[in-house]
Amino acid sequence: MIGKGDSKRVIVLSGVLSGDGSGSNPPLCAQAHADMGDGRNVYVLLLVGTHKAGIKGRPAVWSVSVDDHGKDKSPTKLNGLAAALRK
């Protein structure tokens, strides 16, 4: 485990993420949140399916964000997360 803070996981239904505004078949995402215990927070949003199909197929990384004391230090890809946390 990295950090000394809290971690949380939730399932999120979001029509906003579908991009079409209709919300007719919103993506089903799993969100992991880690409070690093030093003022930084990490969020990883994984696409795991859709509202109609349910959880299906391989998960895909939708977004990764790092909040460093109010500054956005988000990497563009998941493999940049470790480097973003070392800065």
Could you outline the blueprint of secondary structure elements for this entry?
Layout: E1 7-13, E2 27-35, E3 40-50, E4 54-68, E5 71-72, H1 81-86
- Please give the number of β-strands: 5
Average pLDDT metric: 80
Summarize the amount of helix as a percent range: under 10%
Runs with pLDDT <50, length 5+? none
Overview of this protein structure:
- This protein has 1 helix and 5 strands, in the order E-E-E-E-E-H.
- It is mainly beta and 87 residues long.
- The longest helix has 6 residues, at 81-86.
- The radius of gyration is 14 Å and the shape is elongated.
- The two termini are 18 Å apart.
Short characterization:
With 87 residues, the chain is mainly β. The chain has one helix at 81-86, and strands at 7-13, 27-35, 40-50, 54-68, 71-72.
Which terms summarize this structure?
87 residues, mainly beta, 5-stranded antiparallel β-sheet, 5 strands, elongated
